[in-house]
Every structure is written in C-alpha cells, then in structure tokens.
C-alpha cells in the first residue's frame, strides 16, 4: 500500500488538473434531484433505472456503473441532512487533499464496490443491493483520521468529537459483517479497503510509533535541525519535500513546513505536510 500511495501522490503532482473540481457538489445535486423525483414516483420506476444491476449492465445498460452513485439511501427527509453532511466532508477533504487525490479516492471506492458486486453476481447469480453507503462511511473515516478533534452536533444537540463517531461507524461495520451471510457480509470490508489504500500505512506507522515510544527518547529537534542545515550547506536549496522532492529553489512560491510527528527532522511541502506517511526511524 505504501508504494501505491506514493504512486498516487506522484500522479496527483504530475497531473494537477486531473478530476472534477467540486465533485461532491455535483454528486449531491444529482442525488437530490433523483431523491425529489423518486418522492413524486410512488412506483419507484425511475429508481429502477439507476440501481446497480450486473445482469442489466451485461445486457448493455452500462450507465448503471455510475448511476448507482446517485441513488439515495432512503426517501425520508433525513436524507437532506445526509446530503449536507457528506457534501461538507467531501468539500473539506478536497481542500485538504486537492482535487486529483479526492477524485481518485471516490473513483477507487466506486470501482471496488462495483467489482465486488460483479464477483457476487458471478458466484451466486444474484444481484446484491450495492450502494455508496459504505463508500461514504469510508470517506467519513478519512475525515476523522485527518481531523479527529473536530466537533459536530450529534442529534443537533450533543457536541461530540468526530473520532468518537468514527469508532461508532467502525462498530457498525463490524456488526454488518457479523450479522449478514457470506459473501454478502464482505461489502463493508470492500469500503474499508478503499480507506486503507489511502491511510493504511499511516495508520500502521502510527501504531508502531506509539509502541516504540516506550523504547525511544524524544527527538532532539534542535540537534536534528542543525544536522539538516549542515547537510544542505552545499546544496542549491534550503528546503526539500520528503514526498515529492520539490524544493524552495525550484518552487519559490511553495510553502514548506517540518512535521513534528515524524521521527527526525523532515520537511514537506504544503501539499504533503498533512498527507504523508510519518517517519518512524
């Protein structure tokens, strides 16, 4: 996963215009339109043209590979809150990651879910109810990983940190896997896999770092800083990103910072200061 994550970073760096800006806004607008039309269509005929169906896709209805993204989870008015909440999360993630990486995250989640739906169909000859519900939950996991201490109003009243809601979501994922029959119970795991592609190495590195704290002393940042300055004394640059390799000489308008969570004294550009695998040694 580490190599895959770095390849994604390099792709985003080399193709800064890849993807659709404000993608989550378009998804929410179309989903809201489908939700409104479905309310006015008690027979749910319209909805049947959007749902994921491997059998119909193989017969030529290829739009279902994309259209199932816009199928609402329910027709209740709580769905409006769902639309707003995940638009907000998607907007924050896009600003944090950049448009290319956020688009890749959603596209990979949709592809993994669709592939799983086809695998189940070929094994059981049954079409399962594949939706974006677990994809959105994995998106929430990503948000909670980046901003664990952000508070939201649970039930519009109780302030609670996002990380605690993420723990509840994790429990829901586990419950879904335990209560459903095989292989249908693996759909939540597919969504989690999408999260691990982007955060797995960072998560495991954090666990290893916490374990190593008992055996290592605190990093002397002043000493490490002097070491880096000495090594860069004869270099043509002052700061260099440890992820993409950009320097302040080649990109004078780019902002560079040092990460306090990494072991040692490592510099990152503004695109990777909050999005990199922390050094543990």
Tally of extended strands?
A: 4
Biggest sheet overview: 2 strands, antiparallel
Rg calculated over all Cα atoms: 22 Å
Order of helices and strands: HHHHHHHHEEHHHEE
Q: What is the global morphology?
A: globular
Number of helices: 11
**Sequence stretches where pLDDT stays below 50 over 5 or more residues:** 212-217
SS class? mainly alpha
How far apart are the termini?
A: 19 Å
What is the mean predicted local confidence, pLDDT?
79
Approximately how much helix is present in the residues? 55-70%
Key features?
mainly alpha; two-stranded antiparallel sheet; 11 helices
Structure description:
- The chain is mainly alpha-helical and 281 residues long.
- It is 56% helix and 5% strand.
- The chain has helices at 2-14, 23-39, 45-48, 54-58, 64-67, 78-97, 99-124, 133-146, 162-179, 187-212, 221-231, and strands at 151-154, 158-161, 256-258, 267-269.
- The strands form two sheets. The protein has a two-stranded antiparallel sheet with strand order 1-2. Strands 3-4 form a two-stranded antiparallel sheet.
- Helix 8 (133-146) runs antiparallel to helix 9 (162-179).
- The protein is globular, with a radius of gyration of 22 Å.
Protein topology:
Elements: H1 2-14, H2 23-39, H3 45-48, H4 54-58, H5 64-67, H6 78-97, H7 99-124, H8 133-146, E1 151-154, E2 158-161, H9 162-179, H10 187-212, H11 221-231, E3 256-258, E4 267-269
Antiparallel strand pairs: 1-2, 3-4
Helix pairs in contact: 2-6, 6-7, 6-8, 7-10, 8-9, 8-10
């Amino acid at each position: 996963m580490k190599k895959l994550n770095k390849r994604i970073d390099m792709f985003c760096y080399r193709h800064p215009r890849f993807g659709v800006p404000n993608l989550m806004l378009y998804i929410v607008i179309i989903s809201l339109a489908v939700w409104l039309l479905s309310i006015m269509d008690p027979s749910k005929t319209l909805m049947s043209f959007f749902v994921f169906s491997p059998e119909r896709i193989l017969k030529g209805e290829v739009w279902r590979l994309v259209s199932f993204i816009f199928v609402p989870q329910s027709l209740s008015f709580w769905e409006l809150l769902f639309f707003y909440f995940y638009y907000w999360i998607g907007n924050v993630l896009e600003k944090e990651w950049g448009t290319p990486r956020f688009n890749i995250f959603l596209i990979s989640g949709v592809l993994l879910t669709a592939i799983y739906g086809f695998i189940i169909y070929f094994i059981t000859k049954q079409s399962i109810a594949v939706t974006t519900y677990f994809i959105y939950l994995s998106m929430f996991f990503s948000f909670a990983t980046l901003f664990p201490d952000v508070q939201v109003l649970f039930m519009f009243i109780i302030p609670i940190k996002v990380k605690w809601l993420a723990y509840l979501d994790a429990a829901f994922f586990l419950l879904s896997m335990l209560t459903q029959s095989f292989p249908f119970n693996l759909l939540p795991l597919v969504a989690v896999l999408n999260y691990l592609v982007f955060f797995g190495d960072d998560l495991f590195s954090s666990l290893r770092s916490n374990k190593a704290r008992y055996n290592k002393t605190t990093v002397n940042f002043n000493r490490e800083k002097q070491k880096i300055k000495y090594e860069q004394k004869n270099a043509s640059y002052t700061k260099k990103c440890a992820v993409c390799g950009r320097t302040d000489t080649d990109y004078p308008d780019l902002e560079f910072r040092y990460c306090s969570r990494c072991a040692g004294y490592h510099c990152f550009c503004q695109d990777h200061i909050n999005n990199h695998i922390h050094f543990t040694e």
